[in-house]
UniProtKB/TrEMBL annotation:
The gene is MYB12. Residues 134-145 have a biased composition (Basic residues). This is Transcription factor MYB12. PANTHER family: TRANSCRIPTION FACTOR MYB8-RELATED-RELATED, TRANSCRIPTION REPRESSOR MYB5-LIKE. Keywords: DNA-binding, Nucleus, Repeat, Transcription, Transcription regulation. It comes from Acorus calamus.
DNA sequence: AAGGGGGGCAACCGCAAACTG
DNA sequence: ACAGTTTGCGGTTGCCCCCCT
Protein backbone atom coordinates (compact mmCIF):
# COMPACT_ATOMS: atom_id res chain seq x y z
CA UNK A 1 0.00 0.00 0.00
CA UNK A 2 1.29 3.38 -0.89
CA UNK A 3 0.76 6.69 0.73
CA UNK A 4 -2.76 8.09 0.52
CA UNK A 5 -3.21 10.66 -2.25
CA UNK A 6 -3.18 14.31 -1.27
CA UNK A 7 -6.80 14.73 -2.20
CA UNK A 8 -9.76 12.62 -3.14
CA UNK A 9 -9.21 11.95 -6.80
CA UNK A 10 -12.53 10.35 -7.54
CA UNK A 11 -14.46 12.56 -9.90
CA UNK A 12 -11.73 15.18 -10.18
CA UNK A 13 -10.52 16.43 -13.54
CA UNK A 14 -6.95 15.75 -14.48
CA UNK A 15 -4.75 16.67 -17.41
CA UNK A 16 -4.75 19.91 -19.39
CA UNK A 17 -6.88 22.76 -18.18
CA UNK A 18 -9.76 24.00 -20.29
CA UNK A 19 -10.44 27.67 -21.00
CA UNK A 20 -13.55 27.43 -18.83
CA UNK A 21 -11.60 26.09 -15.86
CA UNK A 22 -9.00 28.80 -16.31
CA UNK A 23 -11.72 31.45 -16.35
CA UNK A 24 -13.28 30.07 -13.16
CA UNK A 25 -9.94 30.03 -11.38
CA UNK A 26 -9.01 33.55 -12.49
CA UNK A 27 -12.42 34.86 -11.53
CA UNK A 28 -12.25 33.29 -8.10
CA UNK A 29 -8.74 34.54 -7.35
CA UNK A 30 -9.60 38.04 -8.54
CA UNK A 31 -12.47 38.24 -6.11
CA UNK A 32 -11.03 36.27 -3.17
CA UNK A 33 -7.27 36.44 -3.60
CA UNK A 34 -4.70 33.66 -3.51
CA UNK A 35 -4.44 31.11 -0.76
CA UNK A 36 -6.58 28.45 0.90
CA UNK A 37 -5.92 26.19 -2.05
CA UNK A 38 -7.53 23.25 -0.36
CA UNK A 39 -10.94 24.90 -0.23
CA UNK A 40 -10.58 26.89 -3.44
CA UNK A 41 -11.70 24.27 -5.98
CA UNK A 42 -14.96 23.63 -4.18
CA UNK A 43 -15.72 27.29 -3.68
CA UNK A 44 -14.74 28.19 -7.24
CA UNK A 45 -16.78 25.37 -8.70
CA UNK A 46 -13.77 23.52 -10.05
CA UNK A 47 -13.43 19.76 -10.18
CA UNK A 48 -9.70 19.92 -9.52
CA UNK A 49 -7.56 19.33 -6.49
CA UNK A 50 -6.12 22.35 -4.70
CA UNK A 51 -2.59 21.53 -5.69
CA UNK A 52 -3.54 21.51 -9.33
CA UNK A 53 -5.25 24.91 -8.98
CA UNK A 54 -2.25 26.40 -7.22
CA UNK A 55 0.13 25.10 -9.86
CA UNK A 56 -2.02 26.34 -12.70
CA UNK A 57 -2.26 29.79 -11.18
CA UNK A 58 1.39 30.14 -10.22
CA UNK A 59 2.88 28.73 -13.39
CA UNK A 60 0.44 29.88 -16.01
CA UNK A 61 -2.42 32.17 -15.11
CA UNK A 62 -0.79 34.75 -12.85
CA UNK A 63 -0.97 38.10 -14.65
CA UNK A 64 2.63 39.16 -13.99
CA UNK A 65 4.24 36.08 -15.53
CA UNK A 66 6.77 36.55 -18.27
CA UNK A 67 6.74 33.56 -20.57
CA UNK A 68 9.18 32.40 -23.23
CA UNK A 69 11.84 34.55 -24.91
CA UNK A 70 14.48 33.97 -22.27
CA UNK A 71 17.15 36.54 -22.99
CA UNK A 72 20.87 35.76 -23.22
CA UNK A 73 21.30 37.76 -19.99
CA UNK A 74 18.75 35.62 -18.18
CA UNK A 75 20.28 32.56 -19.74
CA UNK A 76 23.67 33.48 -18.38
CA UNK A 77 22.29 34.31 -14.97
CA UNK A 78 20.48 30.98 -14.73
CA UNK A 79 23.68 29.11 -15.56
CA UNK A 80 25.67 30.99 -12.97
CA UNK A 81 23.02 30.72 -10.29
CA UNK A 82 22.66 27.03 -10.98
CA UNK A 83 26.38 26.47 -10.71
CA UNK A 84 26.19 28.08 -7.29
CA UNK A 85 22.85 26.88 -5.95
CA UNK A 86 22.24 23.62 -7.78
CA UNK A 87 18.63 22.64 -8.45
CA UNK A 88 17.05 25.24 -6.16
CA UNK A 89 14.67 26.32 -8.87
CA UNK A 90 12.52 28.47 -6.67
CA UNK A 91 15.57 30.36 -5.43
CA UNK A 92 16.84 30.82 -8.96
CA UNK A 93 13.41 31.93 -10.11
CA UNK A 94 13.37 34.41 -7.25
CA UNK A 95 16.31 36.20 -8.86
CA UNK A 96 14.62 36.31 -12.27
CA UNK A 97 11.69 38.73 -12.11
CA UNK A 98 8.37 37.25 -13.25
CA UNK A 99 9.81 33.89 -14.20
CA UNK A 100 8.43 30.72 -12.64
CA UNK A 101 10.51 27.97 -11.14
CA UNK A 102 8.80 25.47 -13.41
CA UNK A 103 9.76 27.40 -16.52
CA UNK A 104 13.34 27.74 -15.40
CA UNK A 105 13.50 24.08 -14.49
CA UNK A 106 12.14 23.09 -17.90
CA UNK A 107 14.43 25.53 -19.65
CA UNK A 108 17.40 24.14 -17.79
CA UNK A 109 16.54 20.55 -18.53
CA UNK A 110 15.84 21.20 -22.21
CA UNK A 111 18.43 23.79 -23.13
CA UNK A 112 21.01 24.81 -20.61
CA UNK A 113 22.12 21.45 -19.31
CA UNK A 114 22.82 20.38 -22.87
CA UNK A 115 24.54 23.65 -23.62
CA UNK A 116 26.75 23.19 -20.60
CA UNK A 117 27.57 19.62 -21.50
CA UNK A 118 28.39 20.75 -24.99
CA UNK A 119 30.72 23.41 -23.73
CA UNK A 120 32.21 20.79 -21.41
CA UNK A 121 32.19 23.06 -18.42
CA UNK A 122 33.58 21.38 -15.32
CA UNK A 123 31.43 20.61 -12.30
CA UNK A 124 27.86 20.68 -13.53
CA UNK A 125 25.88 19.88 -10.38
CA UNK A 126 23.36 17.66 -12.07
CA UNK A 127 22.90 15.74 -15.22
CA UNK A 128 19.87 16.46 -17.39
CA UNK A 129 16.69 14.69 -16.44
CA UNK A 130 15.25 12.27 -18.92
CA UNK A 131 11.80 10.79 -18.74
CA UNK A 132 11.33 7.05 -18.71
CA UNK A 133 9.83 7.45 -22.13
CA UNK A 134 12.92 9.15 -23.48
CA UNK A 135 15.22 6.84 -21.59
CA UNK A 136 13.47 3.93 -23.26
CA UNK A 137 13.83 5.57 -26.63
CA UNK A 138 17.51 6.21 -26.18
CA UNK A 139 18.41 3.05 -24.33
CA UNK A 140 18.58 0.98 -27.49
CA UNK A 141 21.24 3.22 -28.91
CA UNK A 142 23.56 2.83 -25.98
CA UNK A 143 26.25 0.26 -25.72
CA UNK A 144 26.90 -1.44 -22.41
CA UNK A 145 30.26 0.24 -22.32
CA UNK A 146 28.63 3.65 -22.48
CA UNK A 147 26.18 2.74 -19.72
CA UNK A 148 29.01 1.64 -17.46
CA UNK A 149 30.86 4.89 -18.11
CA UNK A 150 27.73 6.84 -17.14
CA UNK A 151 27.33 4.89 -13.95
CA UNK A 152 30.82 5.62 -12.80
CA UNK A 153 30.42 9.37 -13.38
CA UNK A 154 27.07 9.70 -11.64
CA UNK A 155 26.89 12.79 -9.47
CA UNK A 156 25.04 12.72 -6.15
CA UNK A 157 23.51 15.93 -4.91
CA UNK A 158 22.76 16.83 -1.33
CA UNK A 159 19.05 16.60 -0.69
CA UNK A 160 17.30 19.84 -1.63
CA UNK A 161 16.02 21.86 1.29
CA UNK A 162 12.81 23.79 1.53
CA UNK A 163 13.15 27.53 1.59
CA UNK A 164 10.51 29.31 3.65
CA UNK A 165 8.39 31.94 1.96
CA UNK A 166 9.98 34.73 3.95
CA UNK A 167 13.41 33.60 2.80
CA UNK A 168 12.29 33.22 -0.77
CA UNK A 169 10.79 36.68 -1.03
CA UNK A 170 13.72 38.45 0.51
CA UNK A 171 16.95 37.40 2.02
CA UNK A 172 16.55 40.38 4.28
CA UNK A 173 14.58 38.04 6.53
CA UNK A 174 17.92 36.62 7.59
CA UNK A 175 19.12 39.95 8.83
CA UNK A 176 18.47 41.43 12.22
CA UNK A 177 15.50 43.83 12.23
CA UNK A 178 17.61 46.84 13.24
CA UNK A 179 19.33 46.87 9.91
CA UNK A 180 16.15 47.19 7.97
CA UNK A 181 14.33 50.41 7.28
CA UNK A 182 15.64 53.94 7.33
CA UNK A 183 19.38 53.64 7.24
CA UNK A 184 19.74 50.63 4.98
CA UNK A 185 17.86 49.76 1.85
CA UNK A 186 16.90 46.11 1.53
CA UNK A 187 18.22 45.96 -2.01
CA UNK A 188 21.71 46.74 -0.71
CA UNK A 189 21.72 43.64 1.39
CA UNK A 190 20.91 40.84 -0.94
CA UNK A 191 23.95 38.90 -2.06
CA UNK A 192 26.46 40.26 0.38
CA UNK A 193 24.24 39.32 3.28
CA UNK A 194 23.50 35.90 1.91
CA UNK A 195 27.17 35.20 1.59
CA UNK A 196 28.10 36.54 4.99
CA UNK A 197 25.25 34.95 6.89
CA UNK A 198 26.29 32.31 9.40
CA UNK A 199 23.18 30.85 10.93
CA UNK A 200 22.80 27.77 13.06
CA UNK A 201 22.37 25.15 10.41
CA UNK A 202 22.98 21.53 9.67
CA UNK A 203 24.94 19.77 6.95
CA UNK A 204 22.18 19.91 4.41
CA UNK A 205 21.07 23.44 4.98
CA UNK A 206 21.22 25.77 2.02
CA UNK A 207 22.61 28.59 4.12
CA UNK A 208 25.41 26.41 5.28
CA UNK A 209 26.26 25.68 1.69
CA UNK A 210 26.12 29.32 0.80
CA UNK A 211 28.37 30.35 3.64
CA UNK A 212 30.90 27.82 2.47
CA UNK A 213 31.22 29.44 -0.91
CA UNK A 214 34.53 31.20 -1.13
CA UNK A 215 34.46 34.94 -1.08
CA UNK A 216 35.80 35.30 -4.59
CA UNK A 217 32.84 33.50 -6.07
CA UNK A 218 30.51 35.38 -3.77
CA UNK A 219 31.83 38.71 -4.96
CA UNK A 220 31.58 37.59 -8.54
CA UNK A 221 27.98 36.63 -8.13
CA UNK A 222 27.12 39.78 -6.28
CA UNK A 223 28.55 41.80 -9.15
CA UNK A 224 26.75 39.64 -11.63
CA UNK A 225 23.40 40.13 -9.91
CA UNK A 226 24.01 43.82 -9.66
CA UNK A 227 24.81 44.09 -13.35
CA UNK A 228 21.83 42.01 -14.26
CA UNK A 229 19.47 44.13 -12.15
CA UNK A 230 20.78 47.29 -13.78
CA UNK A 231 20.37 45.80 -17.21
CA UNK A 232 16.91 44.50 -16.50
CA UNK A 233 15.54 47.74 -15.18
CA UNK A 234 17.40 50.06 -17.52
CA UNK A 235 15.34 51.95 -20.10
CA UNK A 236 17.23 50.36 -22.99
CA UNK A 237 16.36 46.91 -21.86
CA UNK A 238 12.69 47.64 -21.39
CA UNK A 239 12.21 49.21 -24.81
C1' DA B 1 3.80 10.38 -47.46
C1' DA B 2 4.62 8.03 -43.32
C1' DG B 3 6.45 7.12 -39.12
C1' DG B 4 10.04 7.27 -35.73
C1' DG B 5 12.72 10.24 -32.78
C1' DG B 6 13.46 14.19 -30.16
C1' DG B 7 12.23 18.82 -28.25
C1' DG B 8 9.26 21.51 -25.46
C1' DC B 9 6.44 22.11 -21.73
C1' DA B 10 2.16 21.61 -18.80
C1' DA B 11 0.85 18.92 -15.25
C1' DC B 12 1.24 15.34 -11.81
C1' DC B 13 3.55 12.99 -7.82
C1' DG B 14 5.51 12.45 -3.43
C1' DC B 15 8.18 14.33 0.16
C1' DA B 16 8.97 17.43 3.73
C1' DA B 17 8.68 22.04 5.84
C1' DA B 18 5.52 25.19 7.77
C1' DC B 19 1.41 26.05 9.91
C1' DT B 20 -2.53 25.34 13.07
C1' DG B 21 -5.25 23.85 16.79
C1' DA C 1 4.87 19.41 22.66
C1' DC C 2 2.54 17.06 19.38
C1' DA C 3 -0.43 15.42 15.67
C1' DG C 4 -2.90 16.55 11.71
C1' DT C 5 -3.32 19.60 7.76
C1' DT C 6 -1.74 22.67 4.24
C1' DT C 7 1.61 24.48 1.27
C1' DG C 8 5.87 24.63 -1.41
C1' DC C 9 9.25 22.33 -3.81
C1' DG C 10 12.01 19.38 -7.02
C1' DG C 11 11.64 15.34 -9.78
C1' DT C 12 9.25 13.08 -13.26
C1' DT C 13 5.84 11.92 -16.72
C1' DG C 14 3.50 11.97 -20.91
C1' DC C 15 1.36 14.45 -24.64
C1' DC C 16 1.79 17.24 -28.68
C1' DC C 17 4.24 18.92 -32.41
C1' DC C 18 7.92 19.28 -35.61
C1' DC C 19 11.78 17.53 -38.11
C1' DC C 20 14.37 14.14 -40.40
C1' DT C 21 14.97 10.05 -42.92
Amino acid sequence: MGRAPCCAKVGLHRGPWTAKEDALLIQYIHSHGEGNWKALPKEAGLLRCGKSCRLRWLNYLRPDIKRGNITPEEDDLIIRLHSLLGNRWSLIAGRLPNRTDNEIKNYWNCHLSKKIQKEALPNPKTKPIESKDKKKKKKNKKTKKMEKAEETTKIHLPKPVRISSSFKYGFESLIEPGRMGGECDASDLLWSDIMNFNGVVDDHDLVFQMSSIDSLEANMLEKLYDEYSRLLFSEDYNQ
